[in-house]
Amino acid sequence: MMANVTYKNKIYPCDPEKSLLNNILSQGGFLPYSCMEGICHACMMCATEGTPPPESQQGLHKARINQNCFLTCQCKGNEDMTITQPPETLQKTFTAQLVEKIQLDKHVFFLSFQCPIGFDFNAGQFVNIIHPETKKFRSYSISSTPSEGYLEFHIRHIPHGQVSGWLCEQAKLGDEVNFEGAFGDCYYASKHINEPLILVGSGTGLAPLYGILKAAIHAGHQGKIQLFHQAYSEAHLYYHEKLQALAAKHENVTYIPCVQQGNIPVGGKSGDITEIVSQAVGDGHGKKAYVCGNPDTVNALKKSLFMIGVAKDNIYTDAFIPQK
Question: What is the rounded CA–CA span in Å between residue 233 and residue 213?
C-alpha cells in the first residue's frame, strides 16, 4: 500500500520499501540531505499531519521528537503524512561574495565569504552552497563565528566534484555564490559554559569544530575543552599550527592531533581514534561531545563516547560523505 506524503502542497505517492527521502527525490522533489544514513540530520523534517515511525526518530534529541521531527532518509511506512521543514530552517536563499581563497593542503581549500546582511547562524552549522549553472548543491559546515562577519569553510576538493570542483578550481575572488541555511544542531550554546567539551573531527570534519571552539572561547567558556583532529598523516593536519597556538593561549584547551600513519606530531597520537578519545577523556559523565567527519567514524565515536558515560542527548554529530 502506497502512502501519500504532502510536501509544499504537492502529493508524493511513496513506496514503503524505499525511504521517504528517495521517494521524493525520485519524483523530482527537493529535500535537503547529506549522508543519507541517519547521522547528519540534514534531511530532518517535521510531520504536521501523521506520525513518523519510531525508527526515523532514532538519534534525535527529545525536543526534536516532541516537535514530531524525523529523518526522511530513515523513514519507511504506509501512513499518509504532511511534512514541512523545521521552522528555523525555512529560510530564503542568500548571496555572498568570495573574499579569500587559500589552499591549505593537497586536497583542502579555505574559502571565506562576506556574511550577507540578515543571515543568522551558529558556528558549527552548515549551509547548502548552490552551483550557479547546474543548481546542484552540496552541504558545507561553517568554521567561523557570527562575530567575525565572515562565512568561512574548509572544503575538500573531490575529483570531478560538481560543486567542490567549481569552488576550488573556478571560483574567483569577487564571485558571488548562492546558498541556503543555516542547518544543523551541532553548534555551541553558551548555557554549557561550565561543562567539559569533547570535540572530535576527522578530515574537514574539523571545520565545524573550529567554529565551535572559537565560539566557546569568545563566550568565555570555563570548562575543559579537548579537541581531537584525525588525519591520514601529519601533512594532512592542515590547521596544526593554528590549533597549537589556540591551545597555548588558553589553558583550558587541549589539542590532540591524531594520525593514521607516518610520523606522529609532538603531543599527538596514532591508532584507533575511538580508543584514543576514550583513553584521553576517561569518565564522560557530565560532558558534551561534538563529533564530525565520515559516517563510519562518527558512528563508532558515538558508541564509544556513550560507553564511557557521555549521555546520548549530549552527543552532537555532523557526518560528511564526499559527493561528486
Answer: 23
How far is the first Cα of the chain from the last one, in angstroms, to the nearest whole number?
Answer: 34
Burial string for 35-56 (b: 16+ CB within 10 Å, else e) reads: bbebbbbbbbbbbeebebeeeb
At the topology level, CATH places domain 90-183 in Elongation Factor Tu (Ef-tu); domain 3 (2.40.30)
3-class secondary structure, 307: helix
| Arch. (CATH architecture) of 190-319 | 3-Layer(aba) Sandwich (3.40)
pLDDT digits (tens, 9 = 90+) for 263-296: 999 989 999 999 999 999 999 999 999 999 888 8
Under a CB-based contact definition with an 8 Å cutoff, are residues 264 and 235 in contact?
no
Question: Confidence class of residue 136 from pLDDT cuts 50, 70 and 90?
Answer: confident
The structure's pTM equals: 0.81
Residue 218 exposed, middle or buried by CB count within 10 Å (0-12, 13-18, 19+): middle
| Cis status of the peptide bond prior to 247, with omega within 30 of 0 | no
Could you tell me the pLDDT band of residue 60, with boundaries at 50, 70 and 90? confident
Cell of 297: 567514524
Q: Which cell numbers hold the place of 304?
A: 564509544
pLDDT at 322: 59
- Residue 114 CB partners (closer than 8 Å, separation 6+): 96, 97, 99, 149, 150, 151
Model confidence pLDDT, tens digit, residues 176-204 = 999 987 887 789 988 889 999 999 999 99
**Using CA atoms, how far apart are residues 83 and 68, in angstroms rounded to an integer?**
10
